[in-house]
Amino acid sequence: MPVAILHRCRSLKAGIILSALIVAGALAPAPAIASKLAPQTRIRLSVVQWMPTRGTYERWDALGGEFVVSDEGTLSLPVLGNVPVGDLDEAQLAARIAEQLKTRIGLVEKPDASIAVIDYPPVYVVGDVASPGEYRFRPGLTVLQTLATAGGEFRLEGLTGARGVEYAGELRELNDSILRGSIRVARLEAEMAGAKGFDFDLKPHRDNPLAATILQQEQQIFTARAAVVERQSRSFTELRELMGQEIGTLEKKIDSNDEDIESVRKELATVKPMVERGVILPTRQIDLERSLRGYQSTRLDMVTAIMRARQNISEATRNLEGLTDNRQVDVTAQLQAEKGALKQLQLRRDTRSNVLNGALGADADGDNAASTSLTSYSISRRADGKVDVIEANETTTVQPGDVVRVVRTRLPVAGTLPDEAAGVPAAENPTEQASQ
């Protein structure tokens, strides 16, 4: 009996110990997940080597310093060149650099390399927030913390007053800038295609008094730029034709000069035997030889002039071809820049329009409890050369370079009817109301 009791006590003790170990393992904090180094991350690299003969560490300043991860995900380092970062964190990248330094320099032991992040790429907050823009990133940042950094959700108080007028004016200015940019893009595309003219459909913008003026200005710019190119092209073409005519004239003069040379040679062949027999004086032979040399020198000058004219023709042809190529390069660069700026303007316009529409819509409904709002979050993240849109919530962790979009949707409360169902006519577009 005592043996059985002792056995049961031992079993109970073992069970308690096992349970304690399981609970301790469950309560132990999970190891921190190291994040990879995103493009545009600024780091500081330190490399040291243990010197056994001196008993000290030697710092290699020539290999260390501050570096920035490129958009291609590489680090440009002394001695090693471009080192791919990939999905490595600071410790893994430091180990790779130490191993490559050992191999490249031929060391017996690996040096000690360490990496510290100095600055991360910013995060961007857009949508229904009080202060959209870019903000500094810190590890562990969540969507809710990012929203707090941007001033929280957009508040509607006072928007229909002076601030509402300010937003409406900014929205009108953005629309004018987008219209101007769209017409400019159409003009640049026409220039790239080599068209004789271009036009733009102004029907969607017939209420904008600046539309016709902007189109007229861009058409004048198109005509002026085309005239400049045409004038330069005509100048190079006329220069080639002029050089061609000059070559033709010189070739005729060379033919005439060759006839003179042949005539002098025949006469010199007749005079030379007579001089040898003493029939005529040697001065006659000397004069003929001098004339022959003069004709030959003149011929060389004309040949040189022909070569120079042909060189000018080649240069004019090269300039004429380069004129078209340079114009295409210039127009392409302007078109890319204009399209990028147009997208930025459209994004700002959409953000301001959504904010203003939501504000004026809420003001039209009053401050009663007939509606509520639902806030949703999404993250635009660049990975492998493309942008992925990820659904998020308040606890989602943000990574460097992310664009956090906050969208607040107004939802009717159960038991209420829309304006149309209640017999109330639909309100005008809130943006148009603000503009008015």
TrEMBL record:
Keyword Lipoprotein among record annotations: no
Taking every annotated instance into account, which residue ranges of this chain make up the domain Polysaccharide export protein N-terminal?
36-117
Print the keywords alphabetically. Answer: Signal
List residues of the Soluble ligand binding domain.
123-152
Q: Which PANTHER family match?
A: POLYSACCHARIDE EXPORT PROTEIN GFCE-RELATED
> Per its record, how is this protein called by name?
Polysaccharide export outer membrane protein
Record GO terms (molecular function) = polysaccharide transmembrane transporter activity
Please give one Pfam family short name. Answer: SLBB
Give the matching InterPro entries: HH_AprE-like (IPR058781), Poly_export (IPR049712), Poly_export_N (IPR003715), Soluble_ligand-bd (IPR019554)
Q: Where is the AprE-like long alpha-helical hairpin domain?
A: 170-350
